[in-house]
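Please go through this chain and its backbone structure tokens and walk me through the local backbone shapes. Keep your notes short.
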Amino acid sequence: MNAHEIDYHIYGEEMQYVEIELDPQEAVVAEAGSFMMMDSDIKMDTIFGDGSNQDTGVLGKLFSAGKRLLTGESLFMTAFLNIGQGKKQVSFASPYPGKIIPIDLSEKGGKFICQKDAFLCAAKGVSVGIEFSRRLGRGFFGGEGFIMQKLEGDGMAFVHAGGTMAKKVLAPGEVLKVDTGCIVGFSQTVDYDIEFVGGIKNTVFGGEGLFFATLHGPGTVYIQSLPFSRLASRVWAAAPKGGGKDKGEGSILGGLGDLLDGDNRF
């Protein structure tokens, strides 16, 4: 195998974390900010990109790391290497309530496509790159733009889904229609496109957006019930306005206070 062969265990229900067990000289790479805890004798190192192309020279490393800017990620990732004599553990936490999904890339044909912020960590040797959309409809209206993230290799990778995760195995020719923001990822055999909802009432009053994704089998699709964008918008809508002053938000008096002091904007 090109990627390190790691063992793991996922703990928790709603706020999960994954514990990676590393043999001596085994390593795992992770996005900045996902680290939770680790044993002694694990060396933490900041690297360009995912560290999967160490033999390509300086220009190759810079190109690989630079592509990550297109997905909104940092140029750098963090590698955790077991430099001790026995097995050691390092853990990574999910960023918000949801589920951590283990992806064995050797069972996915060596490639898995996911949304830009879904990746959590992977065995050293897994390539974390970008996947360009070849269709204008998907690029403009797919919720993820022209670029998605792709995980390539033959090792284990871990992605995060918000809320409850649904796994759908599509037969050849089977079609699944999904809200664009609810897609976590899918295997490379799945054909992904965008479809207009249609209908004046649906478009104007439906409240579900103008487009949804159509996923054509065969392949495996992972769906999340609570995209982070939806969670953030609900939190923002419920947050106290007017500089955080407590005037009894959520009550009639709170609403009157907003009207009286001019904080209620139309």
